[in-house]
Amino acid sequence: MNHLSLKIDSLAHGLHGAARAIVDVRAGTALPQALARQFARSDMTPQARGAIQDLSYLSMRRLGLADGVLALLADKPPQPEILHGLLTCSLSLLLDEENPAYDAFTVIHSPRLLLTAGHLRALDIFCEAAEIDRERARRWAVVRTARAVLWGHQRGPKWLVEAGERLMGTLLD
User: Fold this and answer.
1) Which of 44, 63, 80, 87 has the smallest number of Cβ neighbours within 10 A?
2) pLDDT of residue 24
3) Dist. CA 141–CA 128, nearest whole Å
4) Would you write out the chain's pLDDT as a tens digit for each of its 173 residues?
5) Among residues 104, 136, 110, 140, which one has the least CA distance to residue 123?
């Protein structure tokens, strides 16, 4: 039953179904079973099922990136869980990992540069060579650095976390 009265062929319906699947996955259910659960809840057209499936798989591929952005925006995961799922799915549509600006982090996060002050110069050189907008590349570098620092706090060596935090400070100045 579609208690929100969303049109079955709308983006809102697809996002809601995918968000519910993401919530199930976060609770430990495998994505195929989570999708089957969503499909069993109501009669859907094949197109609606396909949209939910596509959005769910895209969201899972970009889950870490979306969580990194959410961590920058809020001190704790959004509640209720369905809101967290909706934000994850929505951000997954907005976050494009397949662009040169996304790769700027890789350039300035190299081990050689982590221990120097050459980050911004490397970013400038990269942006000029790739013919990309420096500000967009800087924003992507901030997101990816935050993600790396969060990961480092959980698993990484202290020096790497400190270097990432210094890099974040440089990027945000």
Assistant:
1) 80
2) 97
3) 16
4) 345 688 888 889 999 999 999 999 999 999 999 999 999 987 889 999 999 999 999 999 888 878 877 876 777 888 999 999 999 999 888 776 666 666 666 666 665 555 566 777 777 877 787 778 888 888 888 888 888 888 888 877 787 788 888 888 888 87
5) 104
Q: Which amino acid is at 106?
A: T
| Residue 103: closest CA among 63, 133, 137 | 137
Q: What's the start-to-end Cα distance of the chain, in Å?
A: 50
The burial class, CB within 10 Å (0-12 / 13-18 / 19+), for 1 is: exposed
Ordered alpha helix ranges (H), 31-99? 31-40, 46-61, 63-73, 81-94
The contacts of residue 48 (CB under 8 Å, 6+ apart) are 8, 9, 13, 14, 17
Tokens (6 digits) for 146: 């935050």
Domain segments of the chain as ranges: 11-94, 100-172
Name which of 170, 95, 173 is nearest 140 in CA terms: 95
**Looking only at Cα atoms, what is the longest distance across the chain?**
58
Any residues with CB less than 8 A from the CB of 170 and at least 6 apart, and which?
117, 119, 120
